[in-house]
Write a structure and sequence with these properties.
Layout: H1 10-29, E1 35-36, E2 69-70, E3 79-87, E4 92-99, E5 103-108, E6 114-117, H2 120-131, H3 133-136, E7 151-157, E8 160-165, H4 171-179
Antiparallel strand pairs: 1-2, 3-4, 3-7, 4-5, 5-6, 7-8
Helix pairs in contact: 2-4
Length: 189
């Protein structure tokens, strides 16, 4: 019998952990929350030390004069939240993707995608539900008995995955669902 993991023993595991720690340290070292100037458009202009840089025209990529871009600010087309739904009597496999700017895409099975846009107030409500400390405490995996012929919901927000099933939706997750466009997760065929 071979000792250690099926991937070649403890040495491999230790190397993997060391590599993961090193990668994390390198990533965190570059993200200290300092402002980063937007990418130059054409030639660059110098700025005084400590003065946030702007593009040569004095506007940021979003078009707001004098606005600076922080390293942790998401791009408008970056995904805010993704909800995948499967199961039910019809055996659906659906997806809803909401982007930072409020645009969203719904796909039901293999049909073509449908697009829409949330209002700024709706996006703010969704962000508030996702950033609620109660949502951070929602279990990552279902804790109760699944409902027969019920749906399974897979929610991804900021690299955190939450899986829930009908009959076991935590109140904080229900608040996220209520703030989603088109009345909640896409459960229709």
């Amino acid at each position: 019998m071979m000792r250690g993991s099926r991937y070649g023993g403890r040495g491999w595991t230790r190397s993997w952990v060391a590599a993961a720690v090193l990668a994390s340290a390198v990533t965190v070292a570059g993200c200290d929350g300092q402002e980063v100037p937007p990418p130059p458009a054409g030639s660059s202009t110098g700025t005084a030390a400590g003065t946030p840089a702007t593009t040569p025209t004095g506007t940021s990529p979003t078009g707001t004069p004098g606005e600076t871009v922080k390293a942790d600010d998401p791009a408008p087309d970056e995904v805010l939240v993704e909800v995948n739904v499967d199961g039910g009597i019809a055996g659906v496999v659906n997806q809803l993707v909401v982007r930072q700017d409020g645009s969203y895409t719904v796909r039901h099975g293999t049909t073509s995608s449908r697009h829409g846009r949330m209002t700024p107030a709706q996006v703010a409500e969704l962000r508030a539900a996702l950033e609620d400390p109660a949502y951070a405490k929602v279990p990552a995996r279902p804790t109760g008995e699944p409902a027969h012929d019920g749906f399974r919901y897979i929610v991804t927000y900021k690299h955190r995955l939450v899986v829930a099933t009908d009959g076991g939706i935590a109140p904080a997750l229900g608040r996220v669902f209520a703030a989603l466009p088109e009345g909640g997760p896409p459960t229709g065929p």
